[in-house]
Amino acid sequence: MHVVIIAAANHALREPFAGGLESLTWHLVRGLRRRGVEVTLFSGPGSDPALGAHEILVEPLELSQTARRDVAMPPERWLREHHSYLQAMLDLLGRTDVDLIHNNSLHYLPIALAATLPAPMLTTLHTPPTPWLEPAIRLMDQRRARFVAVSAHTARSWRHVTSAQVVLNGVDVEQWRPGPGGEDLVWFGRLVPEKAPHEAVRIALGAGQRIRLAGPVSDADYFDAAVRPLLGPRADYLGHLGTDDLAALVGQSAATLVTPVWDEPYGLVAAESLACGTPVLGYDRGGLREFVPPDCGVLVPGGDLQEATRRVEEAAGLDRATCRRQAVQHCSVERMIEDYLEVYAQVLAPGRAA
């Protein structure tokens, strides 16, 4: 089987990953190749050289001075991204050696142009409906495409537009190894308002616990205004760590706080935490409860800092071996790859499949 994977172009697929989408796509490519699938990858520049990716960023964007003088010209970054995906889709127009295209981007163009390609397209829905993606899906010929959602919660959020099978995201349980635990709490991920690390710090401090934070500062203004003032002897920011260092940190923690103020489509950090044997204390939002059962985590109503603070000790006391077992059985990359291969076979039937 020859599968083309279209990644999001905004960030490179390499460690330290910019976010869960980049980690997922990197593992998907490698996992499929281990299973004997031929994979051609289109991704943004600077991706891991071992992936052999075709860059899909048009750089620089060539515009005449006449075009630039157009008063209605949209932001150049938007134009660059638009033409990046257009370039990738044009590259695929004449390809007859491709069995299936797996779209993991968040852009509307691959979906809008899917019907022009010889091979069928499978799109993974990583987000709730957006004003760009939703109309593109409504207008497309859905006989030429299939959809997968990263959680049942995400599938439900799209059901007014299309139906989607569920393939839960996976994490590398060989890299996210179980650790001994410890006394401190941990929060990790992109430091942005919608993930609310400042609430995690307040929960930890309210419970009299030390907390360590790690991840990229994707919104410097938010970090300076809401997070930095809370840092001190009981709250440390450790920077943007690579996976090995991050797994060691999580494995040495009593519990992971997951505090989104929006409905996370999946919640990859919770799966990574469980793989390290570290229980989760999280807001019961989005897809989290689909893979964090009561014996592996404590889920409280979103934004209820008082309830979360009260239950820190309960979460930290959950059995670490049970958390690890849950991750291996239900949250692994291998399980995700197996699920995707089944979906690929369905999309290609009655044609050739793996």
UniProtKB/TrEMBL annotation:
One of the record's GO molecular function terms: glycosyltransferase activity
Domain annotation Glycosyl transferase family: ranges: 184-315
Glycosyltransferase subfamily 4-like N-terminal domain boundaries: 19-175
Pfam families reported for this sequence: Glyco_transf_4, Glycos_transf_1
Keyword Transmembrane helix: no
Domain of life: Bacteria
Protein's UniProt keywords contain Glycosyltransferase: yes
UniProt keyword terms in alphabetical order: Glycosyltransferase, Transferase
PANTHER family in the cross-refs: BLL5217 PROTEIN, GLYCOSYLTRANSFERASE
Protein name: Glycosyltransferase family 4 protein
Protein source organism: Ornithinimicrobium avium
